[in-house]
Amino acid sequence: MRPSADRTPSGNLPLSDQIGEAERIGLDFLPLTDHRTYDQHWDPQWQSSKLLLIPGEEANGSPHAIVLGAIDTIVDGANPPGSPAFRHVQQSIWDAHAQDAAWSTAHPDDGEYTPATGPTDNASAQGMNTVEVWNVASNPDAQIDYTENRWNNGFRFGAVGASDCHFRELWGTASPGQPTTWVFASQRSVRGILDAIRAGRTSVSATPQGPFVTIEADVDGDGAFEAIGGDEVIVRDRELPKKARLRVRIRSGAGTKVLIYASPGRSAGPLATLACQ
Questions:
Q1: According to the 3-state scheme, what is the secondary structure of the chain?
Q2: For every one of its 277 residues, what pLDDT tens digit does the chain have, with 9 covering 90 and above?
Q3: Is the pTM of this model over 0.85?
């Protein structure tokens, strides 16, 4: 996040610092967003020989959203009298999709959800591609609660992390790659990254070197794992074959526990708890 044009204190990091830190810690790609600003890719510092730089914007007011891969700023329109409270959010999502961009709900505990009252009207907007389940600037537990609530109500989207990195003084707790979003992409390109994000083929870790989990499923029991995280598989008659398998892999997870949940999520407790040696 850079200082905004009107000099309000939204951040103190030039592009070169953000990009340099992302290169130093070994990231492969880096989205760079500003509040309601979509011009950073015209900055002479917008360059890297090591990273794929993803153009983006932190769009709208409350609620905020991260839009990646658009061609221009996203319009946050008015709500005429008598219209649903989330109309302006919905129109912004349609605007992003019309630009072939990916829409991510940013820190949903600030605009879409509160632990005390649950989802707000804004949570009714359709078409989000991802939701931040780990934004270190607010409450990740509430963000996960929101995500599970929307999944249980039929919404389908992937999960991502966000460092919400505004200030160099917070590096070490909220710097590029803290947390890290991983994608399963068909090619190493900006479009390949965006396609993977839209497909929900993502995983989140604390840092690039932190514990990293993947999940695969052999739903039909034929020995081939045909589904990965982000896929939705329809099970006929709600009964799995006896040879169906779920495979969970973790990297750099020594000393941690893996908790496996099914719908409705954390409120029902884990299906299994595995200790990593």
A1: CCCCCCCCCCCCCCHHHHHHHHHHHCCCEEEECEECECCHHHCCCCCCCCCEEEEEEEECCCCCEEEECCCCCCCCCCCCCCCCCCHHHHHHHHHHHHCCCEEEECCCCCCCEECCCEECHHHHCCCCCEEEEEECCCCHHHHHHHHHHHHHCCCCCEEEEECCCCCHHHCCCCCCCCCEEEECCCCCCHHHHHHHHHCCCEEEECCCCCCEEEEEEECCCCCCCCEECCCCCCCHHHCCCCCCEEEEEEECCCCCEEEECCCCCHHHCCCEEEECC
A2: 444 444 444 677 888 898 999 999 999 999 988 888 888 888 899 999 999 999 999 999 879 999 999 999 998 988 899 999 999 999 999 999 999 999 999 999 999 999 999 999 999 999 999 999 999 888 999 999 999 999 999 999 999 999 888 777 778 777 899 999 999 999 999 999 999 999 999 999 999 999 999 999 999 999 999 999 999 888 888 889 999 999 999 999 999 999 999 999 999 999 999 998 7
A3: yes
